[in-house]
């Protein structure tokens, strides 16, 4: 008697070199630079990637597709990623793995409390760390058979993606004076600058965030950040 379930999902078998083969990763992240890093990590691991840059776009996507893995950034233009994690965690359409993502070390507790399976800290460049975070939350049958060597590869996103992020911030900052926009800029740029090891911009963004956290006027800090962003937009990138 044939006991094969015709409706069971048919995943390509993962291999030692491509341990995430057969998985679809939905990345909910507004930074092009961070997304480029995750694209490279998925490519090296055998996973397919889809991207949403807002909560609204993510929810539209999830109405149509069920990804194997959802990687949710905490700070998004239209809200906090932990709200989406709280929606996904108890859902019948829950992805197999939900990971929170942030450049703020204080966010790990928040995403775990919201129901995430794990947490990725920006910058995300280690292939081994990326694969292990996902595999550790998958059932054993979704793991590659036999021994798997730990990859030492570090991905390097295209610097043009970083420039795209600077252009995005410049557009957001133009004419922006409300506190919510400044908070978003501080959060967004903080993660992006740390991911790109741009220490000057990261420091300026930290000063902006600190002023905002105290409720003080941050006009001077915002002007400094805007100037650094414009400088990076005018710098030539070797292609």
UniProtKB/TrEMBL annotation:
Keyword Phosphoprotein: yes
Database matches in SUPFAM superfamilies: CheY-like
Keyword Cytoplasm: no
Keywords for this protein: Phosphoprotein
Protein source organism: Tateyamaria armeniaca
UniProt-listed PROSITE patterns: RESPONSE_REGULATORY (PS50110)
Stretches assigned to the Response regulatory domain: 24-137
Name under which the protein is recorded: Response regulator
InterPro entries per record: Bact_response_regulator, CheY-like_superfamily, Sig_transdc_resp-reg_receiver
Domain of life of the source: Bacteria
Modified residues (4-aspartylphosphate): 73
